[in-house]
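User: Study the chain.
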Amino acid sequence: MNNKLVVALVAILGTGAAIGAYRTGLIGPQYAQVVRADPITVTEPIYADVTDVVPITQTTDVPQQVCNNQTVQVRQPERFGNKDGTIAGALIGGLVGNQVGGGDGRKLATVAGVVGGAYAGREVDRRHQGGRVTNETQRVCRTETRQKSTTVGYEVQYQLDGRMLSKRVSKNPGDQILLGERERVIGYDVDWQYRDRTGTLRMDTKPGEKLLMKDGAIVVTDSAAGTKRG
């Protein structure tokens, strides 16, 4: 056989073998297939920066007792009181009538003295112009209605993700307002398979469909911890 022909056949066979080995992963870069990637999440609060707080007030009418001291003029009681002159006159007239005569005459005189004294005492009270007038300090109270303003809430303006929003709350939030909670992805648990080998590892970022292998191990560019399966 022609030597040139033999060399050509060997070259062709060698090239085909190399291509097949490359395609089957025997030579060149080796990749593991990503079977599954589960996100790892944590729950964290959502805060926004407060830009303005406006109190919301409500006005109501409240009754209130108001007391103060006042000087008033008071008329002192009459000599026998305003109504006791009749009684005092009857007593005096009866005593005087009892001193007159004796027997039935004394009785009649006593009765006459009581009647006359009562009449005289009543007339004295009726004609008397009153006693002495003095000034006294008295505590005087009254009920007044006053308006009371009460803070019932706050209108809060805040900034979140570049947007200006507002919300009504019951308490002043301060510099930041709590809006709720959300799930944040902090990594991925990745299941992989290479030929008859399987495993799992944790990655900071979500992988694609394949993972580069070197010397039988998965090569990652971020922090990861691998656990071989099967």
Q: What stands out?
A: The two ends are 52 Å apart (CA to CA).
